[in-house]
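hey so i finally got around to running the thing on that chain from the lab meeting. sorry it took forever, my laptop kept dying and i had to restart like 3 times. anyway pasting the input first so we r on the same page abt which one it is
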Amino acid sequence: MSSALPQSPRGGPVAEPAGLRETVLPRELGTVVDIAPFGLGPASTWLLLVDDGAIARLDADTGEWSRLASTTVPAEPEQEPWMGRVPKRRLHASIDGNFAAVVNDYGHHGQILDLRSGAVTATLDGGDYHPETVPFSFAFTQIHGRIVAIHRTRWNRLDLLDAATGASLSERGPTSYRDGEERPERYLDYFHGVLYLSPSGTQIADDGWVWHPAGMVTTWSVPEWSENAWESEAGATRRDICAREYYWDHAITWLNDTTLIVGGLGDDDDGMIDGARIFDITSCEKADDDVGARWRWAREITSFAGPAGRFFSDGTSLFSSDDAGLSRWDPASGERTGHRPGFHPTHHHRGAGELAQLAFGGLVRWSLL
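ok and heres what got predicted. didnt touch it at all, straight out
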């Protein structure tokens, strides 16, 4: 798996040595600030988000592209970044290729757009209570054939909506309260963070935090949530994965629909060691804390040192992308089985079986197949 990153070609998509491929991005588009895998098919098709708000579709194998829509998500007010987290736009794409969302990570504004018409179908607001501490919680999934958006509507509340119409699919009672008001029965003292869907889209992992602060990874079932609007707060499928002082918004990936891999060995950010922890969400241990809260801790299968940066998985191996490059790991043994210096992927296209990054004015890809 080891090779050096090739230099950017002068034009067009080409096959590079050692399996790396690069497609030069259209200059007339402007500066691309984010990408998202487009569709579940085998074609290497990507959505591009441009700094002026344009959203374009790119066929990375042919270089063909087209503008589809334009977002008007407002910029967030300038503020002092919290622990180096700088607000930035993030692009999401639905699995059927019909919808996109643009949100402000470490902010609270966003939009969902119908890529067939360019129309905005929903305006998103994640709430203004400490949004600077977490990326905007958002993910597309499919439930009973309908594209559904999962998004944060308050710091401690996620909701489901129909991507095509913007209609709410998770109406329920209040989840927060003010001084002098009665605390809701299902109040959740939890700041929702990055959302990770399992390969089939049936499970969700939430990388959030709780006061004081401590990072807390949780999971629950999406199908159960579609039947029980309170599943994300107190449902039977909700699992607590692990808690780490001052440590969240780091590496997470699903190995499969029942196995979650979480980055970092340790219980506190000051003593964290690069590594991976692997959890089985189908089994758990129950425990009560000193205030009577019930925790359902998922069973930790194994852990090993080494992986750092972003995590990805093809269902068999764990891949980690850090400053040193891309590494491949055996989740069972913890052995590093490959390394590619100079390649730092940020996105995974499951349909095409590719990892990709923006670099040198192009889209650089490597096939997992």
